[in-house]
Write a structure and sequence with these properties.
five-stranded parallel beta sheet; binds 5-O-phosphono-beta-D-ribofuranose; N5-carboxyaminoimidazole ribonucleotide mutase; about 15% strand; purine biosynthesis; PurE_dom; alpha/beta; Rossmann fold
């Protein structure tokens, strides 16, 4: 369940159609017990809302912003242009171009305004959640411990997967 009290992370997306992907970032934040806020904010359909969100993000106590969008995916870059908080961009897989458009829209930021861009689609959303936790872990030692546990669980899964080689 989303913990929205005093959120440290915002997970925003250009459309509700991005939720299938972006909920994987939220799943990670839930798993690590990180409070977050989730919201649809469109760079094109609600530009004023986007500007208001970005300008007030730090003042509102946020520490990291995860922004997902597909197609002409301007949301992460335009939020990054209006805040100095770290922004992680998730390219959502598009129907027309399989997410190439999303990826290139997000990754090719001009020098001076960074967006940490993840892989396209589900892996990218999961990694966005993890990267946000890793950023917070620099200041929150309990998250560093949980990250160690998470990595160990990945190792165990690999070891267990040998049983499937029959
Ligand atoms: C982008 O356009 C959204 O991020 C979404 O990935 C894409 C399509 O949006 P919908 O037409 O499904 O609302 O702004």
């Amino acid at each position: 369940m989303a913990n929205e009290s005093k959120p440290e992370v915002a997970v925003v997306m250009g459309s509700a159609s991005d939720w299938e992907t972006m909920k994987l970032a939220c799943n990670i934040l839930d798993q690590f017990g990180v409070a977050y806020h989730k919201q649809v904010i469109s760079a094109h359909r609600t530009p004023e809302l986007m500007a208001d969100f970005a300008h007030n993000a730090r003042k509102n106590g946020l520490k990291v912003i995860i922004a997902g969008a597909g197609g002409a995916a301007h949301l992460p870059g335009m939020i990054a242009a209006q805040t100095t908080l770290p922004v992680i961009g998730v390219p959502v897989r598009s129907h027309a171009l399989s997410g190439w458009d999303s990826l290139l829209s997000i990754v090719q930021m001009p020098g001076g305004i960074p967006v940490a861009t993840t892989a396209v689609g589900n892996s990218g959303a999961t990694n966005a959640g993890l990267l946000a936790v890793q950023m917070l872990s620099a200041f929150e030692p309990e998250l560093a411990d949980k990250l160690e546990d998470y990595r160990n669980s990945l190792k165990e899964k690999v070891a267990e997967s040998n049983a499937q080689l029959v």
